[in-house]
Design a protein that fits this description.
Elements (H helix, E strand, L loop, with lengths): L11 H12 L14 E3 L8 E3 L2 E3 L1 E13 L2 E18 L16 H4 L7 E7 L6 E7 L8 E6 L29 H8 L3 E6 L9 E5 L4 E5 L5 H19 L5 E7 L4 H8 L15 E5 L11 E2 L2 E2 L5 H5 L4 E6 L18 H17 L3 E6 L14 E2 L2 E2 L4 H17 L11 H4 L15 H4 L3 E5 L12 E5 L14 E3 L2 E3 L20 H8 L10 H18 L4 H13 L6
Parallel strand pairs: 8-9, 8-12, 12-13, 13-16, 16-17
Antiparallel strand pairs: 1-4, 2-3, 4-5, 5-6, 5-7, 6-10, 7-9, 10-11, 14-15, 18-19, 20-21, 22-23
């Protein structure tokens, strides 16, 4: 059973509320609401556990419930603030020393931090942004009986202003404004969603850590604390059990970047993903463009990699889909061990290879997505904002959610990994990459080029993209970085312009016909027109739909769009 109802005696909720009030350091908007709007949710908390003589875990919970409507369906939104403590480790200097992590086997060694590691207890608080939003259908028969818990990436901090108080995430005028396109897809499919929020700013944080020797360290973060998110998931499970009369039959993890890394640890850390009934807490994982491509499934002891060395260790691995965004080409300045790369894409690929070589290829997939950088545009209307234009990643996520669920529920394995690295994409090792990256019609049948650093006004960056059409007019444009000064002259360098034809130097912009001839979509004597465009889109859609990467509604969208959208004349 997944019931984790509080074992506190009758006086403990009062004590927990006193602890809560003592922790609050800023006025809460909740104070301005009717008295009965804010209620305790202590009864749903996960029981604390003893760590070195101290009780650790959730201490206080408050919530506000709101009735909302999503696509004509009545739903409940519960905004929750949760305070408590965590067991973990940190360092006092070196790379990522602000991280307060639960598992030192991965975090500090793989980032090259060899300084002493200290154990302590970290305190998180709703008064500094620790929160969760639970969404579920009001009608029990509208719920498919499953839960997605989601984890955001790095960069969130209450002190720095981009992590809100727990009761300020809801905008009454737009109750789904803070819910991503991916989470809305989950709701549309009948899942309940638990959206978690925590302190993840890279060089700091909102967590106070007290070391075992009494030393107090402030400004730590909980980027890599999977137990925190797993406890949030259990808290959400308890609420669903109470409100809908049954516990979730499956709980899935979706994490992006710094939310994907702890998702990997759920699978990689022995003994972590075990419920009280012996089954997994998390039944399947989508790790979306894991931060820095980490963490890798490697743990060295006495010079030997001991991770997944036994069949018993491999047996506990739940289905995991990694998504790799091919236009995100970042690197770090880490002094990492020789088996970890500073290149993000290299690490994503090595993660898949290591798992395959350790006998876990039947439980893991990596899908490289062409034409997209780190952001999936999941909060932008149509993926656009000013000069930023991002492929709508939700059109792929729609299919991936179904692929993972079918894998877990029915044992139906999704398509093989997709990569233009021959090690992963050339399964029969014949020198031909048969399983190249996933390409949506915008990339498979290009009318232009998606590129990083989209804005000359500084609104874009390496993690976003812009779009340049094949117009046949003028030079290939500069990207958002502009030119590089070299003495009295200005010299263009590689990557400071959009290399639309991939020849390595800046020259004239192609027409669609010229570009399609170059990539082999047209014969030299053929010209681009609507029928050829529709045929190309139809072929791309049929392949994507046949493999399960897009659903029927997404396929219909592309087919209808190809028949009506304005097209270049040449």
């Amino acid at each position: 059973m997944r019931m984790y109802l509080s074992l506190f005696s009758s006086w403990m909720p009062c004590l927990a509320m006193l602890v809560w009030l003592a922790a609050v350091s800023s006025p809460l908007r909740a104070a301005d609401l009717p008295p009965d709007s804010v209620v305790s949710c202590d009864e749903f908390m996960v029981p604390q556990v003893e760590m070195n003589g101290k009780m650790v875990g959730q201490e206080a919970c408050r919530m506000i419930e709101t009735d909302v409507t999503f696509q004509g369906k009545k739903m409940k939104r519960i905004d929750m603030g949760v305070s408590g403590t965590l067991d973990g480790y940190t360092t006092k200097k070196g790379r990522i020393f602000f991280y307060f992590s639960s598992h030192t086997e991965f975090v500090f060694p793989q980032r090259g931090n060899t300084h002493p590691i200290y154990h302590g207890i970290g305190r998180y608080s709703a008064s500094s942004g620790s929160s969760m939003t639970v969404l579920y259908p009001l009608e029990p028969n509208a719920w498919n009986g499953k839960l997605w818990v989601t984890a955001h990436g790095a960069g969130r901090s209450f002190a720095r202003g981009n992590l809100k108080l727990w009761d300020q995430n809801l905008d009454p005028a737009d109750p789904f404004g803070d819910i991503s396109k991916y989470e809305k897809l989950m709701l549309e499919k009948g899942y309940a969603v638990a959206k978690t929020r925590r302190s993840t700013v890279r060089n700091g944080g909102d967590i106070t850590v007290t070391l075992d020797d009494g030393t107090v360290l402030r400004d730590r973060n909980v980027s890599d604390q999977p137990p925190l998110i797993m406890q949030f998931a259990k808290l959400a499970e308890n609420i669903l059990q109470d409100r809908l009369g049954r516990e979730p039959s499956r709980t899935y993890w979706y994490g992006h970047s710094g939310g994907a890394r702890p998702g990997r640890i759920v699978n990689y850390q022995p003994g972590l993903n075990v419920d009280e009934d012996g089954g997994p807490v998390i039944d399947g994982i989508i790790a979306d463009d894991s931060g820095a491509g980490l963490w890798l499934p490697v743990v060295y002891k006495d010079g030997k990699d001991i991770l997944f060395a036994t069949e018993q260790d491999r047996e506990r691995f739940v289905p995991q889909i990694d998504i790799s965004h091919l236009l995100y080409i970042n690197e770090t300045p880490d002094d990492s061990p020789d088996w970890v790369s500073n290149n993000f894409l290299a690490n994503k690929r090595m993660n898949a290879k290591i798992l395959r070589d350790k006998g876990l290829g039947d439980r893991h997939r990596v899908y490289e997505i062409a034409g997209i950088s780190h952001s999936g545009g999941e909060y932008l209307p149509e993926g656009k904002q000013g000069d930023i234009e991002i492929l709508d990643m939700s059109r792929i996520m729609d299919g991936l959610i179904d692929l993972l669920d079918n894998w877990v529920e029915n044992g139906v394995a999704p398509p093989p990994s997709k990569s233009d690295w021959a090690e992963l994409g050339d399964l029969d090792q014949d020198g031909v990459v048969e399983h190249g990256p996933v390409s949506l019609p915008e990339v498979a049948c290009p009318l232009g080029v998606y590129h990083i650093f989209p804005s000359s006004r500084g609104t874009g960056g390496q993690g976003t993209t812009g779009f340049v059409p094949f117009s046949g007019e003028g030079l290939e444009p500069e990207d958002g970085r502009g030119n590089v000064s070299a003495g009295p002259t200005v010299v263009n360098v590689v990557h400071n312009f959009v290399d639309m034809n991939r020849n390595g130097y800046r020259d004239f912009r192609e027409t669609v016909t010229q570009a399609w001839v170059r990539v082999g979509l047209l014969e030299p004597n053929e010209r681009f027109d609507r029928e050829r465009y529709r045929a190309c889109v139809r072929g791309a859609v049929n392949q994507l739909k046949g493999e399960g990467f897009i659903t029927s509604p997404v396929a219909d969208f592309y087919l209808n769009q190809s028949a009506t959208m304005p097209l270049p004349a040449r």
